[in-house]
Each structure stands twice: as structure tokens, then as C-alpha cells.
Amino acid sequence: MAADKVDPIHQFQIHPIIPIHIGGYDLSFTNSALFMLATVAVASAFLYLSTSGRSLIPGRLQSVSEMAYEFVGNMLRDAAGTQGMKFFPLVFSLFMFVLVANLLGLFPYFFTVTSHIIVTFGLAALVIGTVIVYGFMKHGLGFLKLFVPKGVPIVMMLLVVPIEVISFVSRPVSLSVRLFANMLAGHITLKVFSGFVVSLSALGTLGIAGSVLPLAMAVALTALELLVALLQAYVFAVLTCMYLNDALHPSH
Amino acid sequence: MFVTSAFAQESAPAATEGDTHAATGVPAEAHGTFPPFNPATYPSQLVWLAITFGLFYLFLKRVVMPRVGGIIDVRNDRITQDLDHAARLKGEADAAVAAYEQELAEAKGKANAIGQQANDAAKAEAEAARKTIEAALDQKLGEAEARISSIKANAMKEVGTIAEDTASAIVEALVGGKASKAEIAAAVKSVAG
Predict the structure, then answer these.
(1) 20 to 30 A from B62, CA-CA: which of A172, B55, B125, B131?
(2) Confidence (pTM)
(3) b or e along A92-109 (b: 16 or more beta carbons within 10 Å of the residue's beta carbon)?
(4) What ipTM, to 2 d.p.?
């Protein structure tokens, strides 16, 4: 029982809430789906309700929504130029989704959507898919210039082109693994230190006194995780902007 | 240390267990599979991610972003408008100040002119008054001089008669005869001459 409580992996388990099976696939509404829905609901409700006043002079909540909007907008404009603004809804929803999912995951007993590689990979694949589809749509085969840097000697091309291809292919992997690994590692560490508090307290007076240390550590880690949650949402959005810039301007 | 050992223990049977779960269509529960690497949960997560994120994307694109963008645009317009308004008001204030200063300068000029005019008029009047007074005085002086000279002349005339009378009286007293008037007059005349 005690071992079950400190099991740091338990928080990542997925269990169906409403089982749905279609065509041999298990598409059950799980706790993961529930928290995706919660993420979307919280983010949408916040953005919608905070701006419902449409005040000329914004209140606190409206300021937060406007700041997020302008923050992502400026980020995208800086990275991909004015042309990139057609991807603003995509980048803004990615940023808000990842941010709110990360933040919701920090609540005890809450499931962290972004701690599953398939979710982060799905989002990364959406980004890279958009880059590839839009790149070929806009530039045709000219999009392949992305892999051929200008001003490099022909002989060097043999070396540079494969490197460029590999770096492009590894993008969705690095984009998804970065977010996934950060959230996973953070939550495991948090759980382990919180577990120490529980198991030490069970040892009696001395244990309770000693459990202050891991408790302090857990508090500090929570602050760190808050930072990581914000930072990873930012990193995800920034990299998305940079990859979209490649779709718009493939030649280096 | 704890994490890695747990992961090592649990990831070993992951492949087989994951396969069985995928086959039976039941997502893995706490059976030792490391949950993020359990492919049985992937279809469900991807489908629900697509549904929820798709809805989120549409909601943001259709509702939230036009609204926030609108709020910010309206505010920027309003700020520009207010700045324009302020600039216009400042221009008007500057113009009013300039007009006021011009009017003030004009008024000053006018006042000076009026003062100068009044001064000149007063001077001219004083001069005229002085001249009339001087003329009157000259006239009076002339009249007085004329009167003096006439009086003097009269007096001189009478002096002749007095001298004649005195002379005839003296002659009468001394000589005892009467001297003729003409003789005496001639003698007086020659003396006075």
C-alpha cells in the first residue's frame, strides 16, 4: 500500500472513463481525454470571459489575455515576418494549449496531458506537417532549397545536404521529446520528493522532523515546475515560429 | 535512483503487455507498463487530441482572436485619435496665444499712437495759447507804449506853454511890460530847441 502511494509512475497511467471502441481501435474517453477537454475548456473560458467586457482600459484578467495574444503575435512576427501572421491562430492555440495543459498538470491528482509522448508528438507532427504542406504548396519543389544552403561548394553539398535533412527530420522528435521529457521528469521528481515526505513521516517523530527537508524540496520544485511549465510552452511556440519561417522562406 | 530502477523493472515487460492490451483493446492499467510508452493508449489520445485541439483552434480563430485583436485595434485607434485631438487642441491654443500677442502688440502700438497724438495736440494747443497770449501782450505793450508816447508828447507840449507862461510872468515881473506872446514863444522854442 505504501509502495503504491510513492509509485512515481502511477500519475501517468491512463484509464478509460467512457469506453469507446470503433473499428477495432480503442478510442475510449480516458482521463487523458478528460484533461485535454479540461485544458481546452479552461483556456477557452478564460480567454472568452476575460475579454467579454471589451474594455478600452483592460482589467487584470483582460490584460493577461491581451498580453498572451500580443506576446505570441510579436514572437511570430519577429521570427517569420508579417507573412507568418497567417499562422497566428495555430501558434496561439498551440501556445495556450501547451501552457494550460502544463499548468493544470501541476495541481495534485491532476493528469498532465503533455507528459505523454504521443500527445506532444501529435502537436509536433501538426507543426511539421503544416510546414511541409505549406512549404510545398507555396514554393513547390523550391521548398527543397531548405536543404541546400547558399554559397556552399558542390563537394561540401554531399556532406551538408544529408545533415540538413537529418536536422529537419529530427525536428518533430526533438520538439515533442523536449516537452514530454521536461514534464515527465519534473512530475516524477516532484512525486518522489513528496513520497519521501510520506514515508519519512511514517517512521515516527524523528521521521516527521526529517521530512521537513524533502517537503521544502517539493515546494521549491513546485516553483521550478511552474517555471518549466511556462518556459516549455514558450519554447514550443518559439520553435514552431522558427519552423514556420522555414516554410515561408525556405532559402537560407 | 528510485526512478531509474522503477523504470527498468517496469519497462521490461512493456512490449509484451502493451501488445496484449492493444490486442484486447483495453488500455493498460497499473500493470507495469510505463504509461507514456504504451501504444495501446495512442489511438485514443490522438483522436481526443485531434478533437479537443481542433475545437480549441476553431474557437480561438473564430471567436477569441478577432475579439482580442479588435479590442487592441480599437484601443490603438482611440489612442491615435486622442493624440490627434490633443495635437489639434495644442495647435488651437498656440494660435490663440499668437493672436492674443498680436492683438496686444497692436493695442500697444495704438496706445502709443494715441498718447503721441494727445501729446502733440497738447503741445500744439499750448503753443497756440502761448502765441495768442504773446500777441495780446505785444498788442497791449504797443498800446501802452503808444499811450506813453502820446502822454509824453502832450506833456512836452504842455511844458512849452508852461515855459511861455512862466517866461511872460518873469518878464512882467522883471521888466514890467508885457512881452508879446509870439516873442516869448520863439524864445522858449529856441531854448528848448
Answers:
(1) A172
(2) 0.72
(3) bbbbbbbbbbbbbbbeee
(4) 0.89
